């Protein structure tokens, strides 16, 4: 059953009433209202932020509306994104990717001209990261041996969350096709990330053969098995340089990355194979 949407746009004095052109089983027969709309961003389409009310619900949700007007290329990307959300990424919504609330097609009249549009309603998950991937945190955290802090590991929390999300996306059978900093949202409070914008995504059988660990040295690209995840690992700078020990010294091929832990020195190890 189609979902009905009352869409309030900043340049329209009255709401636009449209129907969904794809099914979202959890919204069958519901009426959605997207209101309190403000401009958020513009890339290949216009993005609005607003409040989403779903009939029968007592709490409005933060949401975004991605809207394109008479653009065949962007329309094709939106339709591709919707197919990915509705199929491969359905089980990852609200944990790895935004919740999807439907694809809608409609039109409105302005200055005696009719404008057709296509829009996607999605959960608003947070704000894009505003630094380069490799600068999300310091590469190492040094802890004094007498410290009571038990976190003796590398500070890679934001990067590892991105890696975990991208690994889950690949396990679900999707190649993102265009991940960069603005495609990663940090949720309010900074405790999670969401990956967005799957207009260029494709169905993918991931052939990754090695695990992605922060205390692993950089693997050979051919051994790793998946170009996209390998390139993301490089961009996030999660791997250290290859190194080897002699009886008297530690030598590295590039920069030294050493973690001191209770007077013991740990060096990086080769990436492990997936089971």
Key structural traits:
seven-stranded mixed beta barrel, alpha+beta, 2 domains, Phosphorylase Kinase, domain 1, three-stranded antiparallel β-sheet, 275 residues
State the share of residues found in helices, binned by percent: 10-25%
By DSSP, the count of extended strands is 16
Q: State the helix count.
A: 4
Give the strand line-up of the largest sheet. 1-2-6-7-5-4-3
Mean pLDDT across the residues is 82
Largest sheet: 7 strands, mixed, barrel
Number of domains: 2
Structural class: alpha+beta
Helix and strand run:
EEEEEHEEEHEEEEHHEEEE
Show unreliable segments: 138-155, 243-267
Strand content: 25-35%
Instruction: Give the C-alpha Rg.
Output: 23 Å
Which word captures the global form? elongated
- Distance N to C terminus: 43 Å
Description:
The chain is α+β, with helices and mostly antiparallel strands and 275 residues long. It has 2 domains: 4-123, Phosphorylase Kinase, domain 1; 127-266, no CATH class. The protein contains 4 helices and 16 strands. The chain has helices spanning 72-86, 157-171, 221-224, 227-236, and strands at residues 4-7, 16-20, 31-42, 46-54, 61-69, 100-110, 113-123, 127-128, 174-175, 184-186, 193-195, 202-203, 243-245, 250-252, 259-261, 264-266. It has a 7-stranded mixed beta barrel. The two termini are 43 Å apart. Residues 138-155 and 243-267 have low confidence and may be disordered.
